[in-house]
Design a protein that fits this description.
With 228 residues, the protein is mainly beta. The protein has a single domain, classed as Mitochondrial biogenesis AIM24 (Double-stranded beta-helix, 4-Layer Sandwich). The chain contains 3 helices and 17 strands. The strands form 3 sheets. Strands 9, 11, 12, 14, 15, 16 and 17 form a 7-stranded antiparallel beta sheet that branches. It has a 6-stranded antiparallel beta sheet with strand order 5-6-3-10-13-8, with no helix packed on it. It is globular and about 60 Å long.
Length: 228
């Protein structure tokens, strides 16, 4: 399997080249185009089917219920994937024994050797306005994530603070807690930052330059009801 990210960073897409019989699992609705002999199978979890409860649990993390599994024909083939919001994409490589936490909306696709589950992040995320459930990626192999805007990594050794809406993914070696941005709640919210995620430990965070909730808030005053 070969994955090339094209048209980055503003409108990135992933061109996935597959050997004969090779397959990749992608979020439903992410396919732009594919080879004519590419086989596609839709399930709620793995390619072999089943695991309806895992599919339902994934919807709690903001993802779709169904996953699409693309398998190349006898001559190999390609599938081109993209996310709903414009921005960058990145190919990450998981090693056995490691895990990666992915924010809802940032997952695009993964190899069959990578497994996806959900991770409960507790009630702390209620107050941040973010989802309480994240996607946990384990196993070994490649996966594709996307960002709303530009995507860039930050290597943490100690402590690091990121706005809650600007986290795309982070290594599970890091711990985090929700805290106010300023010294007081008043200064935090008047300054526009509100609550942030304070990471500690050693690992990598992938940040996105825009937060979809802020984008939605900026559009809301300009939306008008449709006239009948």
């Amino acid at each position: 399997m070969k994955i090339d990210i094209v048209q980055r960073p503003a409108s990135a897409a992933a061109r996935v080249s597959l050997d004969p019989g090779e397959h990749i699992t992608a979020e439903g609705g992410s396919m732009i185009a594919m080879s004519g002999d590419m086989e596609i199978k839709t399930t709620t979890h793995k390619k072999e089917g089943g695991k309806v409860l895992k599919g339902l649990a994934r919807t709690l993390a903001g993802e779709g219920l169904f996953m699409n599994h693309f398998t190349a024909g006898s001559n190999g083939g390609e599938v081109i994937l993209a996310a709903n919001l414009t921005g960058d994409m990145e190919v990450l490589s998981l090693k056995e024994g490691t895990s990666l936490m992915v924010q809802n909306g940032s997952f695009v696709a993964h190899e069959d050797s990578v497994d996806m589950s959900i991770s409960w992040q507790g009630l702390k995320n209620i107050f941040s306005g973010e989802n309480m459930i994240w996607l946990k990626m384990t196993g070994s192999g490649m996966l594709i994530i996307n960002a709303f805007g530009a995507l860039y990594p930050v290597d943490v050794d100690g402590e690091y603070i990121v706005d809650t809406g600007n986290i795309a993914a982070f290594e599970d070696t890091l711990e985090y807690k929700i805290t106010r941005a300023g010294k007081s709640l008043v200064s935090s919210f008047l300054g526009g930052e509100g609550l942030v995620s304070r990471f500690s430990g050693r690992g990598r965070i992938w940040c996105q330059t825009h937060a979809d909730r802020n984008f939605g808030k900026s559009l809301t005053p300009h939306l008008r009801p449709k006239k009948k």
